[in-house]
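Consider one such protein record:
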Amino acid sequence: MDKEIETPTTPATPAPTSPQTPPQKKEVDLGAILLPKKEVHDPLNAPRAEAGVLLKQEQTAELPKTAAPKAPLPPRNDSIVQPLVTYQSDMQKYIQQNNVSNVTIAAAEAERRGKNPDTRETPGQTGSFWFRLGMIFLGSLLLGGAVGLVGYVVYRSQALPAAVNPQAPVIAIDEVRMVPIATTDSRTTALDKLTQAKDAVALSLGLVAQLQPVSATSTPQTPMSARTLLPILTPAMPQELSRTLLPTFLLGVHAFDRNQPFLILKTDSYEQAFSGMLAWENTMHDDLLPLFAYTPSEPIQMAPVVTATTTNTATTTAATSTSVSTHSTTTQILQPVQAVLPGAFLDKILENHDTRVLQNSNGDIYFLWTFIDRGTILITTNPHTLKEVIVRTHEAPIVPIPGQ
Protein backbone atom coordinates (compact mmCIF):
# COMPACT_ATOMS: atom_id res chain seq x y z
CA MET A 1 0.00 0.00 0.00
CA ASP A 2 1.54 3.22 -1.14
CA LYS A 3 2.10 5.94 1.31
CA GLU A 4 1.11 9.42 0.52
CA ILE A 5 3.92 11.89 0.63
CA GLU A 6 3.16 14.92 2.62
CA THR A 7 4.70 18.07 1.34
CA PRO A 8 5.24 20.84 3.84
CA THR A 9 3.37 23.88 2.95
CA THR A 10 4.75 27.33 3.12
CA PRO A 11 2.38 29.93 4.34
CA ALA A 12 1.61 32.34 1.62
CA THR A 13 2.56 35.86 2.10
CA PRO A 14 -0.62 37.80 2.59
CA ALA A 15 -1.19 40.53 0.18
CA PRO A 16 -1.39 43.89 1.64
CA THR A 17 -4.94 44.66 2.30
CA SER A 18 -6.66 47.48 3.54
CA PRO A 19 -7.50 47.53 7.17
CA GLN A 20 -11.08 46.88 6.35
CA THR A 21 -10.48 43.51 4.34
CA PRO A 22 -9.60 40.35 6.39
CA PRO A 23 -6.75 38.00 5.10
CA GLN A 24 -7.74 34.90 2.99
CA LYS A 25 -6.07 31.40 2.92
CA LYS A 26 -4.86 29.91 -0.41
CA GLU A 27 -5.65 26.19 -0.87
CA VAL A 28 -2.85 23.73 -1.91
CA ASP A 29 -3.47 21.39 -4.89
CA LEU A 30 -2.20 17.99 -3.70
CA GLY A 31 -2.79 16.34 -7.04
CA ALA A 32 -0.16 18.47 -8.68
CA ILE A 33 2.38 17.66 -6.02
CA LEU A 34 1.91 13.94 -5.27
CA LEU A 35 3.36 11.22 -7.58
CA PRO A 36 1.04 8.85 -9.39
CA LYS A 37 0.40 5.45 -7.83
CA LYS A 38 2.42 2.52 -9.11
CA GLU A 39 0.74 -0.29 -10.90
CA VAL A 40 0.59 -3.41 -8.77
CA HIS A 41 2.25 -6.41 -10.54
CA ASP A 42 1.25 -9.83 -9.37
CA PRO A 43 3.67 -12.58 -10.60
CA LEU A 44 1.01 -15.21 -10.20
CA ASN A 45 -1.35 -13.51 -12.62
CA ALA A 46 1.28 -12.32 -15.16
CA PRO A 47 1.39 -14.28 -18.45
CA ARG A 48 4.61 -16.36 -18.97
CA ALA A 49 6.55 -16.84 -22.24
CA GLU A 50 8.50 -19.98 -23.11
CA ALA A 51 12.31 -19.70 -23.28
CA GLY A 52 12.48 -21.45 -26.66
CA VAL A 53 10.07 -18.96 -28.18
CA LEU A 54 12.07 -16.04 -26.81
CA LEU A 55 15.34 -17.54 -28.19
CA LYS A 56 13.77 -18.04 -31.61
CA GLN A 57 12.52 -14.48 -31.60
CA GLU A 58 15.99 -13.18 -30.78
CA GLN A 59 17.57 -15.24 -33.54
CA THR A 60 15.09 -14.15 -36.20
CA ALA A 61 14.93 -10.55 -35.13
CA GLU A 62 16.41 -8.06 -37.59
CA LEU A 63 17.50 -4.58 -37.00
CA PRO A 64 15.75 -2.00 -39.01
CA LYS A 65 17.71 -1.13 -42.08
CA THR A 66 18.07 2.45 -43.06
CA ALA A 67 19.53 3.36 -46.41
CA ALA A 68 22.56 5.62 -46.18
CA PRO A 69 21.97 8.89 -47.83
CA LYS A 70 23.81 9.26 -51.09
CA ALA A 71 25.99 12.27 -51.38
CA PRO A 72 25.35 14.14 -54.57
CA LEU A 73 28.23 13.98 -57.09
CA PRO A 74 29.90 17.25 -57.85
CA PRO A 75 29.05 18.60 -61.27
CA ARG A 76 31.54 17.58 -63.99
CA ASN A 77 33.57 20.36 -65.43
CA ASP A 78 34.48 19.29 -68.95
CA SER A 79 36.52 22.39 -69.50
CA ILE A 80 39.32 21.04 -67.25
CA VAL A 81 39.92 17.82 -69.27
CA GLN A 82 42.37 18.50 -72.07
CA PRO A 83 42.36 16.40 -75.23
CA LEU A 84 45.25 13.95 -75.77
CA VAL A 85 48.01 15.48 -77.85
CA THR A 86 49.16 13.21 -80.71
CA TYR A 87 51.25 13.59 -83.80
CA GLN A 88 48.13 13.43 -85.97
CA SER A 89 46.41 16.18 -84.01
CA ASP A 90 49.51 18.35 -84.26
CA MET A 91 49.65 17.82 -88.01
CA GLN A 92 45.97 18.68 -88.41
CA LYS A 93 46.39 21.80 -86.35
CA TYR A 94 49.47 22.84 -88.34
CA ILE A 95 47.65 22.26 -91.67
CA GLN A 96 44.65 24.34 -90.54
CA GLN A 97 46.75 27.21 -89.28
CA ASN A 98 49.24 27.39 -92.19
CA ASN A 99 46.94 26.24 -94.97
CA VAL A 100 49.40 23.65 -96.35
CA SER A 101 48.90 20.18 -97.83
CA ASN A 102 50.24 16.75 -96.88
CA VAL A 103 52.54 16.78 -99.92
CA THR A 104 54.25 19.94 -98.69
CA ILE A 105 54.81 18.41 -95.26
CA ALA A 106 56.28 15.18 -96.76
CA ALA A 107 58.66 17.19 -98.94
CA ALA A 108 59.85 19.22 -95.96
CA GLU A 109 60.46 16.02 -93.96
CA ALA A 110 62.50 14.51 -96.82
CA GLU A 111 64.62 17.67 -97.03
CA ARG A 112 65.26 17.57 -93.29
CA ARG A 113 66.44 13.96 -93.46
CA GLY A 114 68.78 14.82 -96.30
CA LYS A 115 70.46 17.52 -94.24
CA ASN A 116 70.67 15.37 -91.03
CA PRO A 117 71.24 11.72 -92.06
CA ASP A 118 70.59 8.95 -89.45
CA THR A 119 73.93 7.71 -88.05
CA ARG A 120 72.51 4.55 -86.47
CA GLU A 121 73.90 1.30 -87.93
CA THR A 122 71.59 -1.07 -89.66
CA PRO A 123 71.75 -4.83 -88.89
CA GLY A 124 73.70 -5.47 -92.06
CA GLN A 125 76.48 -2.96 -91.36
CA THR A 126 80.08 -3.94 -90.52
CA GLY A 127 80.17 -2.77 -86.86
CA SER A 128 77.18 -4.83 -85.86
CA PHE A 129 78.68 -7.90 -87.59
CA TRP A 130 81.95 -7.73 -85.62
CA PHE A 131 80.03 -7.14 -82.39
CA ARG A 132 77.97 -10.26 -82.93
CA LEU A 133 81.10 -12.22 -83.86
CA GLY A 134 82.84 -11.13 -80.66
CA MET A 135 79.85 -12.10 -78.56
CA ILE A 136 79.75 -15.54 -80.21
CA PHE A 137 83.47 -16.03 -79.55
CA LEU A 138 83.13 -14.98 -75.90
CA GLY A 139 80.18 -17.31 -75.41
CA SER A 140 82.17 -20.18 -76.93
CA LEU A 141 85.04 -19.53 -74.51
CA LEU A 142 82.71 -19.53 -71.51
CA LEU A 143 81.00 -22.71 -72.67
CA GLY A 144 84.35 -24.45 -73.26
CA GLY A 145 85.62 -23.41 -69.82
CA ALA A 146 82.49 -24.75 -68.14
CA VAL A 147 82.77 -28.07 -70.00
CA GLY A 148 86.45 -28.34 -69.09
CA LEU A 149 85.74 -27.64 -65.41
CA VAL A 150 83.03 -30.29 -65.28
CA GLY A 151 85.33 -32.78 -67.01
CA TYR A 152 88.15 -32.07 -64.56
CA VAL A 153 85.87 -32.58 -61.55
CA VAL A 154 84.56 -35.85 -62.99
CA TYR A 155 88.11 -37.03 -63.75
CA ARG A 156 89.35 -36.22 -60.24
CA SER A 157 86.38 -37.99 -58.67
CA GLN A 158 86.98 -41.21 -60.59
CA ALA A 159 89.08 -44.02 -59.14
CA LEU A 160 92.68 -44.37 -60.24
CA PRO A 161 93.45 -46.91 -62.97
CA ALA A 162 94.40 -50.49 -62.20
CA ALA A 163 96.96 -50.51 -59.44
CA VAL A 164 100.60 -51.43 -59.47
CA ASN A 165 100.29 -52.63 -55.88
CA PRO A 166 97.33 -54.95 -55.33
CA GLN A 167 98.49 -55.70 -51.79
CA ALA A 168 97.40 -53.20 -49.15
CA PRO A 169 100.33 -51.24 -47.67
CA VAL A 170 100.83 -51.19 -43.93
CA ILE A 171 101.01 -47.37 -43.74
CA ALA A 172 100.04 -44.42 -45.89
CA ILE A 173 102.37 -43.95 -48.88
CA ASP A 174 102.90 -41.31 -51.56
CA GLU A 175 104.46 -43.28 -54.40
CA VAL A 176 104.94 -46.90 -55.52
CA ARG A 177 107.98 -48.17 -57.45
CA MET A 178 108.12 -51.65 -58.93
CA VAL A 179 111.42 -53.56 -58.55
CA PRO A 180 111.60 -56.82 -60.60
CA ILE A 181 113.51 -59.56 -58.75
CA ALA A 182 113.90 -63.11 -59.98
CA THR A 183 113.86 -66.03 -57.58
CA THR A 184 117.18 -67.09 -59.10
CA ASP A 185 118.88 -63.77 -58.27
CA SER A 186 121.65 -63.89 -55.70
CA ARG A 187 121.47 -61.91 -52.46
CA THR A 188 123.95 -59.34 -53.77
CA THR A 189 122.04 -58.87 -57.04
CA ALA A 190 118.70 -58.44 -55.28
CA LEU A 191 120.11 -55.95 -52.77
CA ASP A 192 121.79 -53.95 -55.56
CA LYS A 193 118.49 -53.67 -57.44
CA LEU A 194 116.67 -52.43 -54.33
CA THR A 195 119.50 -50.02 -53.48
CA GLN A 196 119.39 -48.50 -56.98
CA ALA A 197 115.60 -48.13 -56.72
CA LYS A 198 115.99 -46.46 -53.31
CA ASP A 199 118.55 -43.96 -54.62
CA ALA A 200 116.33 -43.19 -57.65
CA VAL A 201 113.41 -42.01 -55.49
CA ALA A 202 113.03 -38.24 -55.77
CA LEU A 203 110.34 -36.99 -53.42
CA SER A 204 109.82 -33.83 -51.41
CA LEU A 205 111.05 -33.74 -47.84
CA GLY A 206 108.93 -35.91 -45.55
CA LEU A 207 107.19 -38.00 -48.24
CA VAL A 208 107.32 -41.79 -48.39
CA ALA A 209 107.64 -44.16 -51.36
CA GLN A 210 107.10 -47.92 -51.46
CA LEU A 211 109.56 -50.28 -53.16
CA GLN A 212 107.42 -53.18 -54.34
CA PRO A 213 109.49 -56.25 -55.32
CA VAL A 214 107.73 -58.23 -58.06
CA SER A 215 108.55 -61.58 -59.54
CA ALA A 216 110.49 -61.05 -62.77
CA THR A 217 109.88 -64.62 -63.97
CA SER A 218 106.05 -64.54 -63.87
CA THR A 219 103.73 -62.97 -66.42
CA PRO A 220 102.11 -60.75 -65.40
CA GLN A 221 104.51 -59.68 -62.69
CA THR A 222 103.09 -60.49 -59.26
CA PRO A 223 104.14 -58.88 -55.96
CA MET A 224 106.46 -60.97 -53.82
CA SER A 225 105.53 -61.85 -50.24
CA ALA A 226 107.79 -61.56 -47.22
CA ARG A 227 108.26 -65.34 -47.13
CA THR A 228 109.51 -65.24 -50.74
CA LEU A 229 111.73 -62.12 -50.57
CA LEU A 230 113.41 -62.39 -47.16
CA PRO A 231 115.10 -65.77 -47.76
CA ILE A 232 116.79 -64.13 -50.79
CA LEU A 233 117.88 -60.96 -48.97
CA THR A 234 118.64 -62.33 -45.49
CA PRO A 235 119.48 -66.05 -45.61
CA ALA A 236 120.95 -65.82 -42.09
CA MET A 237 117.61 -64.84 -40.49
CA PRO A 238 116.76 -67.23 -37.60
CA GLN A 239 114.11 -69.82 -38.40
CA GLU A 240 112.15 -69.02 -35.22
CA LEU A 241 111.65 -65.49 -36.59
CA SER A 242 110.92 -66.39 -40.22
CA ARG A 243 108.23 -68.90 -39.15
CA THR A 244 106.24 -66.16 -37.36
CA LEU A 245 106.31 -63.63 -40.25
CA LEU A 246 103.14 -63.03 -42.27
CA PRO A 247 103.21 -62.54 -46.08
CA THR A 248 102.34 -58.83 -45.75
CA PHE A 249 105.30 -56.46 -45.54
CA LEU A 250 106.35 -52.98 -46.69
CA LEU A 251 109.78 -51.94 -47.94
CA GLY A 252 109.84 -48.15 -48.17
CA VAL A 253 111.93 -45.02 -48.56
CA HIS A 254 111.54 -41.90 -46.40
CA ALA A 255 112.79 -38.62 -47.87
CA PHE A 256 114.69 -37.08 -44.92
CA ASP A 257 118.25 -35.74 -45.02
CA ARG A 258 118.73 -38.38 -47.71
CA ASN A 259 116.62 -41.36 -48.80
CA GLN A 260 116.19 -43.42 -45.62
CA PRO A 261 115.12 -47.07 -46.07
CA PHE A 262 112.75 -48.88 -43.72
CA LEU A 263 111.24 -52.37 -43.54
CA ILE A 264 107.92 -53.21 -41.86
CA LEU A 265 107.18 -56.86 -41.06
CA LYS A 266 103.99 -58.40 -39.67
CA THR A 267 104.06 -61.27 -37.17
CA ASP A 268 101.52 -63.51 -35.50
CA SER A 269 103.54 -64.19 -32.33
CA TYR A 270 105.04 -61.30 -30.39
CA GLU A 271 107.07 -63.42 -27.94
CA GLN A 272 108.60 -65.67 -30.60
CA ALA A 273 109.28 -62.75 -32.96
CA PHE A 274 110.95 -60.72 -30.19
CA SER A 275 113.21 -63.64 -29.31
CA GLY A 276 114.05 -64.15 -32.99
CA MET A 277 114.91 -60.45 -33.47
CA LEU A 278 117.31 -60.57 -30.52
CA ALA A 279 118.97 -63.65 -32.03
CA TRP A 280 119.24 -61.94 -35.42
CA GLU A 281 121.03 -58.86 -34.00
CA ASN A 282 124.42 -60.53 -34.55
CA THR A 283 124.07 -60.35 -38.38
CA MET A 284 121.01 -58.12 -38.94
CA HIS A 285 122.82 -54.95 -40.00
CA ASP A 286 125.31 -56.76 -42.23
CA ASP A 287 122.53 -58.84 -43.86
CA LEU A 288 120.73 -55.65 -44.96
CA LEU A 289 123.78 -53.84 -46.35
CA PRO A 290 124.19 -51.93 -48.67
CA LEU A 291 120.43 -51.20 -48.71
CA PHE A 292 120.43 -50.00 -45.07
CA ALA A 293 123.83 -48.28 -45.16
CA TYR A 294 123.67 -44.90 -43.42
CA THR A 295 126.34 -42.67 -41.93
CA PRO A 296 124.99 -39.78 -39.82
CA SER A 297 126.37 -36.33 -40.44
CA GLU A 298 128.72 -35.83 -37.52
CA PRO A 299 129.88 -32.46 -36.23
CA ILE A 300 133.64 -32.00 -36.45
CA GLN A 301 135.11 -32.18 -32.98
CA MET A 302 138.39 -30.35 -32.41
CA ALA A 303 140.94 -31.70 -29.91
CA PRO A 304 143.58 -29.32 -28.46
CA VAL A 305 147.20 -30.22 -29.25
CA VAL A 306 150.12 -28.29 -27.71
CA THR A 307 152.72 -27.50 -30.37
CA ALA A 308 154.85 -24.65 -29.01
CA THR A 309 155.52 -22.59 -25.92
CA THR A 310 156.93 -19.08 -25.90
CA THR A 311 158.35 -17.47 -22.74
CA ASN A 312 158.87 -13.74 -22.33
CA THR A 313 161.09 -12.55 -19.42
CA ALA A 314 161.27 -8.98 -18.17
CA THR A 315 163.87 -7.74 -15.60
CA THR A 316 163.67 -4.46 -13.63
CA THR A 317 166.59 -3.10 -11.55
CA ALA A 318 166.29 -0.32 -9.00
CA ALA A 319 168.46 1.13 -6.31
CA THR A 320 166.63 -0.67 -3.55
CA SER A 321 165.05 -3.75 -5.25
CA THR A 322 165.28 -6.10 -8.22
CA SER A 323 162.23 -7.98 -9.70
CA VAL A 324 162.01 -10.62 -12.42
CA SER A 325 158.67 -11.50 -14.17
CA THR A 326 158.08 -14.38 -16.57
CA HIS A 327 155.03 -14.66 -19.00
CA SER A 328 154.33 -17.91 -20.87
CA THR A 329 152.05 -18.28 -23.95
CA THR A 330 150.78 -21.65 -25.23
CA THR A 331 149.62 -22.05 -28.82
CA GLN A 332 147.05 -24.81 -29.56
CA ILE A 333 146.17 -26.39 -32.95
CA LEU A 334 142.79 -28.17 -33.23
CA GLN A 335 142.63 -31.48 -35.13
CA PRO A 336 139.47 -33.50 -36.07
CA VAL A 337 138.71 -36.63 -34.07
CA GLN A 338 137.38 -39.63 -36.00
CA ALA A 339 134.32 -41.43 -34.58
CA VAL A 340 134.42 -45.16 -33.99
CA LEU A 341 131.38 -47.41 -34.63
CA PRO A 342 131.03 -49.83 -31.69
CA GLY A 343 128.60 -52.26 -33.47
CA ALA A 344 126.66 -53.31 -30.33
CA PHE A 345 122.90 -52.84 -29.89
CA LEU A 346 121.75 -50.64 -27.02
CA ASP A 347 118.34 -50.09 -25.41
CA LYS A 348 116.72 -46.66 -25.91
CA ILE A 349 113.25 -45.13 -25.58
CA LEU A 350 112.34 -43.44 -28.89
CA GLU A 351 108.88 -42.02 -29.55
CA ASN A 352 107.67 -43.81 -26.42
CA HIS A 353 108.76 -47.19 -27.83
CA ASP A 354 111.39 -49.59 -26.50
CA THR A 355 113.99 -49.56 -29.27
CA ARG A 356 117.24 -51.43 -29.96
CA VAL A 357 119.76 -49.10 -31.64
CA LEU A 358 123.25 -49.00 -33.11
CA GLN A 359 125.05 -45.70 -32.59
CA ASN A 360 128.53 -44.28 -33.06
CA SER A 361 130.78 -42.80 -30.40
CA ASN A 362 129.04 -39.42 -30.74
CA GLY A 363 125.69 -40.98 -29.85
CA ASP A 364 124.26 -40.69 -33.39
CA ILE A 365 121.92 -43.58 -34.31
CA TYR A 366 122.51 -45.22 -37.68
CA PHE A 367 120.41 -48.40 -37.33
CA LEU A 368 117.46 -49.46 -35.15
CA TRP A 369 114.56 -51.87 -34.80
CA THR A 370 111.44 -51.88 -32.63
CA PHE A 371 107.87 -53.15 -32.30
CA ILE A 372 105.32 -50.48 -33.29
CA ASP A 373 102.66 -52.76 -31.81
CA ARG A 374 102.62 -56.42 -30.79
CA GLY A 375 102.18 -57.51 -34.40
CA THR A 376 104.33 -55.00 -36.34
CA ILE A 377 108.15 -54.84 -36.53
CA LEU A 378 110.00 -51.79 -37.91
CA ILE A 379 113.64 -51.77 -39.07
CA THR A 380 115.11 -48.42 -40.20
CA THR A 381 118.17 -46.17 -40.01
CA ASN A 382 117.18 -43.08 -37.95
CA PRO A 383 114.65 -41.90 -35.34
CA HIS A 384 113.00 -39.43 -37.74
CA THR A 385 111.83 -42.24 -40.01
CA LEU A 386 110.54 -44.09 -36.95
CA LYS A 387 108.45 -41.04 -36.01
CA GLU A 388 107.11 -40.68 -39.57
CA VAL A 389 106.05 -44.33 -39.74
CA ILE A 390 104.28 -44.12 -36.38
CA VAL A 391 102.39 -41.02 -37.50
CA ARG A 392 101.37 -42.56 -40.82
CA THR A 393 99.95 -45.68 -39.18
CA HIS A 394 97.12 -43.46 -37.93
CA GLU A 395 96.51 -41.52 -41.16
CA ALA A 396 94.65 -42.31 -44.38
CA PRO A 397 96.80 -42.85 -47.49
CA ILE A 398 97.66 -39.68 -49.41
CA VAL A 399 97.59 -41.59 -52.69
CA PRO A 400 94.71 -44.13 -52.61
CA ILE A 401 95.60 -47.64 -53.69
CA PRO A 402 92.84 -49.01 -55.97
CA GLY A 403 91.20 -52.17 -54.79
CA GLN A 404 92.01 -51.50 -51.13
Remarks:
- The radius of gyration is 61 Å.
- The CA atoms of residues 150 and 156 lie 10 Å apart.
- DSSP finds ten helices and ten strands in the chain.
